[in-house]
């Protein structure tokens, strides 16, 4: 797919990206976004268009090849973030405090842009599934799809996805074999003692000392290792009692995020964390509850998927960067590994772009053709067009 061949389509996809940007919806609430995409995709007559998947707003457009062959699934994420749009744009988010600050509007547009290409160049063999996935940011979207039989029965043979990457040259394909992004999970801890009048703290049972000890000790638990074997605990929030001068606190709350590149390291870290929590709470006679939220598995590229992505980038004539160490952020794309061999790659969004989740970030429209070219090369390689 050459750039001149793509250029008439790019104006249409830029407009689609702006419309999706304006519709920005939070994780799990992507109803207008789903409807808009559905209208767009229907114009190019997919064989089938499944809606209401997973957490309720997932979509899959199915394109059939002329003869039998493998099933390839390509995935884009749909959700925006609870961040106010700091940019004054003609297509600024219509919702106060919600905007596309991770570029999922661009991811959806690149994926949807394959539909008009397929209308012109039908697949030679197999089936292509274009998946629009809700709720990536909360780690719930892929999980919900994997519990939906209408989705799992599509039984793809390969799944690929991408994320745009500010700080990398525009259109550069960033690849890594093995772990691409770490497993991560949120830890929510509550310590329970007993409140008392602040004048008589000895009559209550404050969790202050236990909280102080945990704040000191928890970040020391992960072993310090090479970045390729990252294992990390970050304290993200702590609360002792309520904001008051009259009450000696009876409850404390602590939030932390655990990350590890390898699942066995994540399991070891979780075990060490739980051991310390139980030990501290019981030594101080406090009640303890702990819960994990926003659990992301590691996103890992197996040898086969990695080789497919390398070949596709070469075929598309795109610049490739082989990344030494995995990224630090997490992606729920890793969940799809249980369904089929899956590959995830980064796409440079430009060196001067603000970072993801920064209020000034906006997906660069100049990136649209690069994602299309990479996807088109993957389709060509596995299904032919
Ligand atoms: Zn994000
Ligand atoms: Zn994202």
TrEMBL record:
The Mn(2+) ion enhances activity. Residues 184-280 form the Peptidase M20 dimerisation domain. Keywords: Hydrolase, Manganese, Metal-binding. SUPFAM superfamilies: Bacterial exopeptidase dimerisation domain, Zn-dependent exopeptidases. Pfam families: M20_dimer (PF07687), Peptidase_M20 (PF01546). It comes from the Bacteria. Its EC number is 3.-.-.-. Mn(2+) binds at residues 102, 104, 137, 163, 357. Its cofactor is Mn(2+). PANTHER family: CLAN MH, FAMILY M20, PEPTIDASE T-LIKE METALLOPEPTIDASE, PEPTIDASE M20 FAMILY MEMBER. NCBIfam families: amidohydrolases. The keyword Glycoprotein does not apply. Gene3D superfamilies: 3.30.70.360, Zn peptidases. GO terms for molecular function: hydrolase activity; metal ion binding. The lineage of its organism: Bacteria, Pseudomonadati, Bacteroidota, Cytophagia, Cytophagales. It is an enzyme of class 3 (hydrolase). This is Putative hydrolase YxeP.
């Amino acid at each position: 797919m050459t750039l001149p061949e793509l250029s008439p389509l790019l104006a249409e996809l830029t407009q689609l990206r702006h419309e999706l940007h304006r519709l920005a919806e939070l994780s799990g609430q992507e109803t207008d976004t789903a409807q808009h995409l559905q209208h767009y995709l229907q114009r190019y007559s997919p064989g089938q268009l499944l809606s209401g998947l997973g957490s309720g707003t997932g979509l899959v457009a199915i394109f059939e090849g002329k003869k039998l062959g493998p099933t390839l699934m390509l995935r884009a994420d749909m959700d925006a973030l609870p961040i106010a749009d700091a940019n004054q744009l003609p297509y600024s988010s219509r919702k106060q405090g919600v905007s596309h600050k991770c570029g999922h509007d661009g991811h959806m547009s690149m994926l949807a842009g394959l539909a008009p290409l397929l209308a012109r160049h039908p697949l030679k063999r197999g089936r292509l599934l274009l998946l629009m996935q809700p709720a990536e940011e909360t780690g719930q979207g892929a999980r919900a799809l994997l519990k939906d039989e209408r989705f799992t029965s599509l039984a793809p043979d390969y799944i690929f996805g991408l994320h745009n990457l500010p700080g990398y040259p525009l259109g550069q394909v960033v690849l890594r074999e093995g772990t691409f992004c770490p497993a991560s999970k949120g830890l929510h801890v509550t310590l329970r003692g007993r409140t008392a009048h602040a004048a008589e703290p000895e009559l209550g049972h404050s969790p202050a000392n236990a909280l102080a000890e945990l704040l000191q000790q928890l970040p020391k638990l992960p072993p310090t290792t090479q970045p390729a074997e990252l294992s990390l605990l970050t304290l993200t929030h702590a609360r002792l009692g309520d904001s008051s001068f009259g009450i000696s606190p009876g409850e404390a709350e602590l939030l932390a995020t655990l990350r590890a590149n390898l699942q066995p390291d994540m399991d070891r870290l979780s075990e060490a964390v739980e051991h310390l929590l139980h030990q501290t709470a019981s030594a101080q006679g406090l009640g303890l509850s702990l819960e994990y939220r926003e659990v992301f598995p590691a996103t890992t590229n197996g040898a086969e998927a990695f080789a497919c992505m390398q070949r596709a980038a070469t075929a598309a004539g795109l610049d490739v960067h082989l990344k030494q160490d995995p990224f630090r952020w997490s992606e729920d794309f890793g969940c799809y590994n249980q369904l089929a061999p899956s590959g995830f790659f980064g796409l440079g969004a430009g060196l001067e772009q603000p970072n993801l989740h920064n209020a000034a970030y906006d997906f660069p429209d100049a990136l649209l053709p690069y994602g299309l070219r990479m996807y088109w090369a993957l389709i060509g390689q596995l299904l032919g067009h």
